[in-house]
Amino acid sequence: MDSHSQHNLLLTRRQLFGRASTGIGGAALGSLLEDDLCAKPRGQNDHPVDPRTGGLAELPHFGPKAKRVIYLFQSGAPSQIDLFDYKPMLRQFHGQELPDSVRQGQRITGMTSGQDSLPVASSIFKFNQHGQSGRWLSELLPHQGRIVDDVAYINTVHTDAINHDPAITFIQSGFQQPGRPSMGAWMSYGLGSENQNLPGFVVLVSQKNSLNNAQPLFSRLWGAGFLPSRYQGVRFRSSGDPVLYLSDPPGVNRKSRRRMLDSLAELNKMRSEAFSDPEIDTRIAQYEMAYRMQTSVPDLMDLSDEPDHIFDLYGPDSRKPGTFAANCLLARRLSERNVRFVQLFHRGWDQHNDLPRDITLQSKSTDQPSAALIHDLKQRGMLDDTLVIWGGEFGRTVYCQGELTATNYGRDHHPRCFTIWMAGGGVKPGVSIGETDDYCYNIVNDPVHIHDLQATVLHLMGIDHKKLTFKYQGRHFRLTDVHGNVVEQLLA
How far apart are CA 299 and CA 201, in angstroms? Predict the structure, then answer.
């Protein structure tokens, strides 16, 4: 044997796996690593299934305060300085350079790192106190001023990410990189659904009201990650069929569709038994869900049974499909039907310039519907067991991005502190948690990390965030990764 042939026999580990990944080698390698190549289907490990809900039989871990969640996600990051976190001292500092003792060498984005100056921009909007709690709110939020005693404000939320995509991914999935399940998917996986005719996780997207460009949204933000895809969010559209391909094609009636699905289910069941692939079981379940949704979804989307005073409560936009107001009304209807997790994404809060103009437009479109949702749930006796969350992915800087004038300014991304509010579902009403410094730049006391927020949401739903796990690639993953503490001050 010549030296060249001998050299070919001395394969490196990388070469071995590279060659084994093709042809029959791939099948052989797959049989050796079967448990680690893909996530095990639920029910085939230590997680028995509750046949009533389709969730885990061991959940909830303890008595839940909330049965469902409505998450009003404000994509782009609203300015806490101009809406929630009142800083009267900033008037004295307006136009002055942000002190080094405040910034403390903390990182800033590339959008302002090249500026010669970082001048402080106090809010041009007036703040007023509301309710028995005396909560300060911007004049941009007059309707929310009427619900402050039902709401808990967290002024000291902070995150690890400074740019939009990793920050939104982080607050939705507990990790900055794509690939992990969203919070709604975790909820669907753990608790299942109380309504077998609608998805357990529904997503509604409304368009921006600002004039500047809005940050894009990606379906992975409500995806299932490594969980079986049946737990991903189902996006409802505002025009045409709410869900694509829900209607029967021409010439196919309900009887024919039922017969076709039964035959298809038999074939899929055979494949599932042969390969134990959880995605085959997901396909069967999704076909059946789509069949049931042909009846349940049209009834859900038909708002003709809503009285005029309800439309008046949510505002004039509530009659326009696809608006934030209309989606808030739909969120209440979905919650009435026991959909476990409803998430609204409202774009347009990324105000690097022309902030006074655009935040006014955004607030006008969201203030009344947000307050109306709380009032509507409360008058129906649903607020006690429905958790409502309002907020974005990070905050905005106290210093101005671009030119600062008497009437105009912009704000850059600020992960160090921002405000999120929560209401109902076991949350202590009428409280404010945490304090930031006079510049609204650093946290003074009671910091709340994103993982703390996620742990608290799961806790209110009766879930111990450390115990809701899923084994994937040899590791037990959870929403809060290896972090997170329940925010006890939030609990009623």
Answer: 18
